[in-house]
Write a structure and sequence with these properties.
By secondary structure, the chain is of the alpha+beta class. 46% of the residues lie in helices and 11% in strands. It has one domain: Cytochrome p450. Helix 5 (107-126) packs parallel to helix 14, helix 7 (161-170) packs across helix 10 (228-259) and helix 10 runs parallel beside helix 14.
């Protein structure tokens, strides 16, 4: 038997991301071992796949690389428990449930959402303190995404910050969550979330079917009679998917524009580049660091022999820096011709169902900055999320300088 290529650095170590030193390990693996095995980690043994080509190949073969066995993150379950949402399912159940959610993200729905995003973002920017230091994450990234999430879910406006709390808990992948005390706290909070959403869902059940997401869910055959755990898991998925990833791309844009100021000037000179810049920041930031699959059979990949039942981690953060696809990949380039080839939204049947809504929010934030002639100047470096799952920024002190 051929010896396995070994991963020299534990890529699940959150310090790689909080200390922003993930680039070298991923570059080394892309060059030397695009598929490699790590025996010891807080999450057990796992394979790493780091090239753009091989991650796409895995994503396009869900029969071999299961989302349902195990979990979609490197951790086994959420807070140590199974978490059966539709992204953590394989066809046909994945297909049936995804279809229900996707109906809330049609072009006509997105046209309506775009008007709402523009109005809310303008109002938010009007209130920002020019010339004073404030936290960009707390004052912009979080409110933009939480506001839209509350609108999509028709969640009570005065309670919307609960969505942030539940999102942060549901997306928490770290060794600290794998103990009984945290698990008890987690499911107690998820129980409160479920109780609130069950009230909203039951109200929809008593009404005629309508064109909003909760009504579609409760009146559908695929999602109308989920178990309590399935309801918790799917609601949590919608909250995380509609919040964390977009939030972190909006924060990442400030860092990218600071590091590459000439790119902001390109946008000022040619605002038609803004939609492409939104794609490029999703690539550059890569708000989802990884997704995980589990083998359904023995198979060869990248010169390695993988065994049924083994954990396979697809490092989107590495794929989005793959020089074989993205020339000068570390550079933030608003005119990059193939920016849309990023894997920030995944690939294949599990590609993010709300991708278009995320793009609208990011574009709108960039447009507001450009139209106002603002420079967003960091006052210190960003504080980075301690997680191997989401590539996040938790705080970023900035000052607005007007033109």
């Amino acid at each position: 038997m051929t010896a396995r290529a070994l991963t020299p650095v534990d890529l699940s170590d959150a310090e790689l991301y909080t200390e922003d030193r993930w680039r070298e390990p991923f570059a080394r693996l892309r060059a030397e071992a695009p598929v490699s095995w790590r025996e010891d980690s807080a999450y057990g043994g796992y394979w790493s796949v780091v090239s753009h080509e091989l991650i796409q190949a895995v994503e396009l073969d869900p029969e071999t690389w299961s989302s349902q066995i195990g979990n979609i993150t490197i951790a086994d379950g959420v807070a140590g428990q199974e978490f059966p949402n539709f992204i953590a399912m394989d066809p046909p159940r994945h297909t049936e449930q995804r279809r229900v959610v996707a109906a809330a993200f049609t072009p006509s729905q997105m046209a309506k959402r775009e008007q709402q995003v523009r109005a809310r973002t303008k109002e938010l920017f009007d209130a920002l303190p020019v010339g004073e230091t404030f936290d960009w994450v707390d004052r912009v990234s979080v409110p933009v995404t939480i506001a839209m999430l509350a609108i999509v879910l028709d969640f009570p406006w005065g309670e919307r910050m609960n969505l942030r709390k539940w999102s942060d808990m549901a997306s928490n992948v770290s060794p600290e969550v794998m103990n009984e005390d945290y698990s008890a706290q987690f499911f107690a909070e998820m129980g409160l979330m479920l109780a609130r959403f069950d009230e909203l869902l039951e109200a929809r059940r008593q009404q005629e079917p309508a064109d909003d997401l909760l009504s579609r869910m409760i009146h559908s055959e695929a999602m109308g009679n989920l178990t309590a755990l399935e309801r918790i898991a799917n609601i949590a998925l919608l909250i995380v998917g509609g919040n964390d990833t977009t939030r972190n791309s909006i924060s990442g844009f400030i860092e990218a524009a600071h590091k590459f100021p000439s790119e902001l000037e390109r946008l000022r000179a040619d605002p038609s580049l803004i939609p492409n810049a939104a794609q490029e920041i999703i690539r550059w930031q890569s708000p989802v660091t990884h997704m995980r699959r589990t083998m359904t059979r023995d198979v060869a990949l990248g010169g390695q022999q993988l065994k049924e039942g083994e954990k396979v981690v697809l490092w989107y953060l590495a794929a989005n820096r793959d020089e074989a696809v993205f020339a000068d990949a570390e550079r933030f380039d608003v005119g990059r011709e193939n920016a849309r080839r990023h894997l920030g939204f995944g690939h294949g049947i599990h590609r993010c169902v709300g991708a278009r809504l995320a793009e609208i929010q990011i574009c709108t934030v960039i447009e507001e900055i450009i139209q106002r002639g603002w420079r967003i100047v960091p006052q210190e470096g960003p504080t980075r999320l301690a997680s191997p799952f989401l590539h996040g920024i938790t705080a970023y002190p900035v000052r607005i300088e007007a033109a």
